[in-house]
Input
Amino acid sequence: MQKTKNQLYEQIKDLKTKEEFNKVINKLQKDYDNLFDKDAAALLIVDELGRNKENIITISELKANDECTVFATVTNIKNQRSFSRKNGSSGRVTNLEISDDTGTCGLALWDKDTEIVKNKTIQKGTKIKIINGYVKDGFNGIEINVGKWGMIETNPENMPEIKNSHPKKTNGINGELVEIEPTRPFFKDNGEYGFVANIKIKNKNKTQNIALWDEKVKEIQNFKIGDKIEITDIDKRQRNGLEEFHLNGSGSIKKI
Output
């Protein structure tokens, strides 16, 4: 739950009087045409003063249903998609991939927030700080959403050094295809359908689980149990501190 203005003031009361605090809140609201309420304005002030530290975590620590503040680098941006909601209204979504030294996850921007990608405020390689994002257990793994209480800073001044800002990939996994689970369709938040299927590959005494997405689900139907296959350009991600392997449009499947 987002803290109220008065609760947030307690975190900086040694730096500003209550009168000064309220004055800055009113100015922020006026400068931004009252696009956010006083509680959200208060959060901006507290964050700018460096006191919004309680929820700053790494990507590997993300858990579904948490609120979080995360520093990361944008490593991939997908095309914006438009969709119709069940109530008849239209919406827009842009999905990004972000990384830090501990892992990779998704970032979903909705409606007006997609403009920061369209106008190139955020590009591949941009350093960002997600403040008060909420975490979902998505079909592509852990995903951060920026909702009413969330915001994004680009190239923040207090950005820590991220040495490994690229998605971790394996060169390839090969072995015997021992299982293809049934395809699971799912309804995405943007109103579109997607598909996912898990497979198992056995190599010596080790069995590896890999999640296939959309077009790769169709490709695996051309193979049968017992085939020797190689899968390359696999995304290695972190989910609740554990490694997961995912294959999407950038990877390949072939017989060996």
